[in-house]
Amino acid sequence: VQLQASGGGLVQAGGSLRLSCAASGYTVTRGVMGWFRQAPGKEREFVAAIKGYPAYADSLKGRFTISRDNARNTMYLQMNGLEPEDTAVYYCAVSLNAGLIASRIRDSDEYHYWGQGTLVTVSS
After folding, report:
1. Is pLDDT above 90 for 5?
2. Separation CA 30–CA 68 (nearest Å)
3. Can you spell out the DSSP letters for 16-37?
4. How far apart are CA 94 and CA 116, in angstroms?
5. Which of 32, 2, 5, 1 is nearest to 21 (CA)?
6. Positive or negative torsion for Cα 55, 3, 9, 39
7. Are 37 and 66 in contact (CB under 8 A)?
């Protein structure tokens, strides 16, 4: 399984970005795919996941939207209303556990494969 994340960059506060995660060796409908982020000096944190239905970090709900294109075998994260606090490296990840329950979907330990990360920088 290989995951290629892209779409990061520098954006002003209030702007938008769309991240992509292209999967190879894995079918995006098979298990759970998620986005995590790690800001400088902070621990990696859950952003969103999709398993037929989406799940979001409570603090991000309403600004970020996760989706997937089954035909392109790609997952996306649309980020609107970006704030400087959203500055981080964003990682996509795959859990092979198709039965991953909602209470565990935010746990990075449940994910088996990780992309290389894409840097998002939001200026004030």
Report:
1. yes
2. 12
3. -EEEEEEEESS-TTSSEEEEEE
4. 13
5. 5
6. positive
7. no
Residues forming a β-bridge with 123:
12
Question: Helix and strand tally (H, E) in the chain?
Answer: 0, 11
* Predicted confidence band of residue 82 (pLDDT cuts 50, 70, 90): very high
Mapping DSSP to helix (H, G, I), strand (E, B) and coil, where does residue 27 land? coil
Owner of token pair 């970020």: 64
Residues 6+ apart with CB under 8 A from 96: 30, 31, 112, 113
Q: What is the mean pLDDT of residues 83-107?
A: 92
Pairing mode of beta strands 45-50, 32-38: antiparallel
Residue 3 contacts residue 114 (beta carbons within 8 Å): yes
